[in-house]
């Protein structure tokens, strides 16, 4: 296909425009503004990862532990990693309801029980060696108001969603630090930034998981001196998983949910970069992380909107 030709008059007009300083300045400003997000992402990646690249990742030799890998997001993560012939160990209370690839194994454990966490961690190291990647994906929720929810259920949400990731890290992190090689991934939630009515205990645990992620990065850098051990956290919006299956079935959340595979893609792609990061899925919801910096009245209006949506879904 031949390119269109310009007559002399049009070409001359274009040349004159190109010489106009105001137009050149405007074009330069547009270009520089467009570069800001990319430059910001580059600076963040460099700082979070201590300005270092780890080229030693070999996914045929890594050992990955995925909690909650029997269903939902965890299942999709497991299947994607298995395609790379990576050794994957699922830790879940329930057995997988799908055929496990030959490089995937299953260990049953109640992640609300510290004794079981200790036992399963020792079993994994004994049978498979020290994990190089820990993906804290397991999570539960109650979808009940504070006063309606029994104390036992509140404690279980904290045990599974927040305490278990810390205890598992205590078991597997020392070997990562010794090797200066490893990655701890926490699956958080947008509830870290905007908690809703009837989702308070869950939101508390996800906010706590974000604090754990941020503090872990600081300790890896300043205490353990392991600059190549990575840490990531993924914040998905509502996901089509068993956790909210009933709400989706009622028809009020279908337009606001994403697939488990979409979240798993974000987790696995980040792992394969060799860098740690903080990711929001979908990326169009990344602005949510800024909510706590908004004026109080704006924050409350946004939380009101999500709370009403959730309560309507639960009531329908």
From TrEMBL:
Source species, domain of life: Eukaryota
Give the UniProt subcellular location, in the record's own words: Membrane
Instruction: Give the principal location in a single coarse category.
Output: membrane
Q: What GO cellular-component annotations does this UniProt entry give?
A: membrane
Transmembrane residue ranges: 23-43
Is the keyword rRNA-binding in the record?
Answer: no
Q: Which UniProt keywords apply?
A: Lipid metabolism, Membrane, NADP, Oxidoreductase, Transmembrane, Transmembrane helix
Membrane topology for this entry? Multi-pass membrane protein
User: Is Nucleus among this UniProt entry's keywords?
Assistant: no
Q: Which GO terms describe its molecular function?
A: all-trans-retinol dehydrogenase (NADP+) activity
The family this protein is said to belong to: Belongs to the short-chain dehydrogenases/reductases (SDR) family.
Chain's role: Catalyzes the reduction of all-trans-retinal to all-trans-retinol in the presence of NADPH.
Q: What name goes with this protein? A: Short-chain dehydrogenase/reductase 3
UniProt organism field: Fusarium fujikuroi (Bakanae and foot rot disease fungus)
């Amino acid at each position: 296909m031949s390119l269109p030709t310009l007559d002399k008059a049009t070409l001359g007009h274009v040349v004159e425009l190109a010489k106009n300083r105001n137009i050149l300045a405007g074009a330069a400003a547009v270009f520089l503004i467009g570069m800001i997000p990319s430059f910001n992402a580059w600076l963040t990646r460099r700082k979070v990862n201590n300005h270092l690249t780890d080229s030693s990742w070999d996914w045929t030799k890594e050992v990955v532990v995925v909690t909650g890998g029997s269903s939902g997001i965890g299942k999709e993560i497991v299947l994607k990693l298995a395609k790379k012939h990576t050794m994957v160990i699922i830790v879940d209370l329930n057995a997988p309801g799908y055929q496990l690839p030959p490089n995937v194994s299953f260990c049953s454990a109640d992640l609300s029980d510290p004794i079981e966490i200790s036992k399963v961690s020792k079993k994994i190291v004994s049978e498979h060696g020290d994990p190089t990647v820990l993906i804290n994906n397991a999570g539960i929720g109650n979808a009940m108001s504070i006063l309606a929810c029994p104390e036992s259920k509140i404690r279980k949400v904290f045990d599974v969603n927040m305490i278990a990731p810390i205890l598992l890290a205590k078991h597997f992190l020392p070997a990562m630090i010794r090797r200066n090689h490893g990655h701890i991934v926490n699956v958080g939630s947008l509830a870290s930034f905007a908690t809703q009515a009837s989702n308070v205990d869950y939101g508390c645990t996800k906010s706590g998981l974000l604090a754990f992620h941020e503090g872990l990065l600081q300790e890896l850098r300043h205490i353990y001196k392991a600059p190549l051990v990575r840490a990531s956290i993924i914040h998905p919006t509502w996901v089509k998983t068993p956790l909210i299956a009933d709400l989706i079935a009622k028809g009020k959340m279908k337009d606001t949910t994403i697939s488990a595979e979409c979240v798993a893609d974000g987790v696995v792609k980040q792992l394969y970069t060799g860098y740690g990061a903080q990711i929001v899925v979908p990326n169009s919801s990344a602005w949510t992380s800024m909510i706590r910096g908004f004026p109080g009245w704006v924050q409350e209006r946004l939380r009101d909107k999500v709370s009403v949506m959730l309560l309507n879904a639960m009531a329908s």
